[in-house]
Amino acid sequence: MSSQEEKGMYRSRPTPRDPSVLTDLGAKCDLSRPACRQCRGAGSRCDGYRGEESVIFRDQTAETLGKVAVFSNANLPNGNQGVLVGLKLPQQAKVHHSQDTASHYPWFRLEVTPEDQVLPFFFHHYVLPESGRAPTHPDCHGIIYKRATEPGYLANLINAVGLAGLAYLRNAPTLINSARKSFSHALRDICAALMDPSEASSDQMLVAVMLLALYETVAYNSDGGLSPWSRHVDGAMALLQLRGAGQLRNRIGRSIFHSLRSEILINCLQRRLPVPTVLIDFMAEAHSNETEQEAPAARLADIVVSLCASLSAAEEDITDEEILSSHVSRLLSIDADLKDWAQTLPTEYGYNTRTKPSDLDEAGVFMGRYDIYSSV
Fold this sequence. Notes:
Blueprint: H1 3-10, E1 21-22, E2 27-28, H2 37-42, H3 61-65, H4 101-104, H5 114-126, H6 141-148, H7 153-170, H8 173-193, H9 197-200, H10 203-218, H11 227-243, H12 251-271, H13 277-287, H14 295-316, H15 321-343, E3 351-354, E4 370-373
Helix pairs in contact: 5-7, 7-8, 7-10, 8-10, 10-11, 10-12, 11-12, 12-14, 14-15
């Protein structure tokens, strides 16, 4: 066999430039299907002659979208309209808006069910990622994330909080019904789990009870007022006592305590009640283990304890002018403590005030200003 014949045997497939001619050999392809005779003779794989139309790129976006469910107000149940996928584009990319955006970018119309949005929605709005979290933010992310997709009361609570948030965001009453079902299932499982002492004192249980309070905040019911939320906070306080001071000696337990401390202090402020002695004792114990980053929030908590005590006492003796004068003096002293606390904050607590949304076209700005915190 000549070198030219040998070369033709292994280079017999057509090239896209001129598929009917083997330009490097000067030999014509016989255009046989499914394979040419040269490849068959050499025992090589050949896909046959490729026509010009087979190497043309086509835009098949519309055809692909036709095979999946697309967004339509006509075929969605009431309350689920407006559930869309938002694509984040690079900052340097420029998007030219037009009235027929949907026709140019049909993937914007892809539907994502609320159930599939619950977990991302929950973590985006209620849990900061471990990387870049604020110095005083509770380190509950790992505990929640590891159990978020496993069957159990914590997963049901996350689902309930996420659905409730989506219900108000999308104005979808059907979602709040689903949230209540998940919440009921979680309550039933929590009641059963509390019968086990080891489960009752676990990190997971304390986080779950805090999520009960969060659910009552998100899915606020005007008929019940703050009573359900207050009951959950009181329940978390009972679990705090059950866990003992040992929880403050490790980072996770101390971080959960910090979050619960905030809930209890808010509860006392809103109800104008003195802070329970049990929490004050735990706060004093936590001082011996706190880090430099935890110190500013701990000092603020101590000031709030004094404020709650002053507000509670003032309501009891509001008719006595002399005692009322002493209360005013005490409140002024607390105000001075707050100013001093603000002056000693680390730089990462700083913020910038903007008077109008320079980088957002349609941002809702309260009272013509908003603050930007770089640490959050």
